[in-house]
Amino acid sequence: MNSAQSRQQAPIAISNQPGLHYCINTAEQQASQYLNELLERHQHASGWTLILAPETASLKMLTELEALQQNRILLIHRKQIQDLAGTLKKAILAGTCSCIINFAELTDLQQSQELAVLAECCGCTVYCVATHTSWCH
User: Fold this and answer.
1) For position 44, what pLDDT does the model report?
2) What is the average per-residue pLDDT within 59-66?
3) DSSP code of 26?
4) Quick one: how many helices (H) and strands (E) in the chain?
5) In angstroms, how far is the first alpha carbon of the chain from the final one?
6) Going by C-beta distance under 8 Å and a sequence separation of 6 or more, which residues neighbour residue 97?
7) At residue 67, what are phi and psi to the nearest 5 degrees?
8) Does the pLDDT of residue 57 top 80, yes or no?
9) In the 8-state DSSP scheme, what is residue 125?
10) Which end of the chain is more exposed for a tag (fewer CB within 10 A), N or C?
């Protein structure tokens, strides 16, 4: 399937409400589809869109996007993140991100629950695009 066909796929059912949401994908291509859908949904939001640890295909897709406001997108590569939960917490508390899209695995259930409460209280929408997880909420 070429990139034009993948962009024409049906929208993915993902919440726009503040809080922590999991997007479970089965392939790198689906991760790019999630990213494309989320960026389109949040392109007119007033704050920044922060993308944490994107996969290679997602980075390639980002370079091909012309219609989106790329000047409102911040990107942090996986190798730049030492403490994922701490990075997410700082981004949520800063109050400047309307949307955070995280491709790194959150492995601690308690930290995930704390981040979910924090995101909801701060009005920030956080998406965790994961390849698998034994728990979701």
Assistant:
1) 80
2) 69
3) S
4) 5, 5
5) 31
6) 47, 48, 49, 50, 74, 91, 124
7) -80, -20
8) no
9) E
10) N
